Amino acid sequence: MSRATKCRLATLGLGLILATPAQGCRSRSGASVQSAATSGDGATPGPTSLPPLAGGTPCGEMGCTQFDTPQAAFEAAIAGAPLVVAIGEAHAQKGAHVPSSARRFKETLLPVLKGRASDLLVELMNPPSGCLAQAAAVKQQQEVVTSHQAATDQNEYVAMGEAARAAGIVPDLLRPTCADMDSIRDAGDDAIDVSLATIARLTGNKVIELVDRDQRSDADAGKMVVTYGGSIHHDRLPSKDRESWAFGPRVDARVAGRYVELDLYVPEFIDESDSWRKMPWYPHYDKARLGRKTTVFRPRERAFVLIFASTPG
Questions:
Q1: Cβ-Cβ contacts under 8 Å for 226 (sequence gap 6 or more)
Q2: pTM (2 decimals)?
Q3: How buried is 51 (Cβ within 10 angstroms: 0-12 exposed, 13-18 middle, 19+ buried)?
Q4: Angle value at C-alpha 61, between 58 and 64, nearest 5 degrees
Q5: Tens of pLDDT along 21-37?
Q6: Distance, first Cα to last Cα, the chain
Q7: Phi, psi for 155 (deg, rounded to 5)
Q8: For residues 121-146, b (16+ Cβ closer than 10 Å) or e, as one string?
Q9: Residue 212: which residues within 8 A CB-CB, separation 6 or more?
């Protein structure tokens, strides 16, 4: 895999280190594309024959369904009592002029999870205080790409955690060890691979820990564990060259298929760049025809793409 390809893929899943927006390579749309892993560029393609979701209006191929509200679309996607709901997004970058996926999730979808989710694990990496120098070095390495991110990204992730706590959902973040930070810092040309693999491992370990704890708890048994971050990691059917970057397969197996992967997109961020065009739902999304309502596609079983309605004005 070329370094240029790895650079593009880095935007799909590298976590926010030290509350700094995620590493990535800027796309032309003003969004850091987070979800090509679920669709194109070598990933396992999904069928186009899945039926539309209940409660909405059919709108075309790949299970296309439209809903009047994002809440109704979200409810339909997480129906069926999943134990893990893994959410991916396209990070807002500088120049974004409409609310991001993170903000929309916090304001419109997170309240749906009140009383139904025990935990929200966000893709923020918080190294121990004993290795802040290593973490600072990693942060500096990433500045060439993090400088393109919207200044609001960091605050929106923090606000998401605060909103979760207010709703009775316990927020948490990723906790790499000093050895993890050393490995990333010292990886040289392989730093992207090491970072992606580290995030996948930390997320998978924590989600499994939370699921196991919930199953032993009278108060939380059957509740969902929700993750929010780069969807290159939540893909449960990753391509061969991305298996080490994905926690999806391991977690999906642990919960015996009670696992849902969901991508959230802002239509104003979708453009004609290769990163978007390679997604299997892209040919079926016509913003002029579908943009007035929330649209959901089904690339494959238990995988959903939710595209918010266009922002008026």
A1: 84, 85, 86, 87, 113, 117, 119, 120, 121, 169
A2: 0.87
A3: exposed
A4: 40
A5: 333 333 334 444 443 33
A6: 42
A7: -65, -35
A8: bbbbbbbeeebeebbebbbebbeebb
A9: none
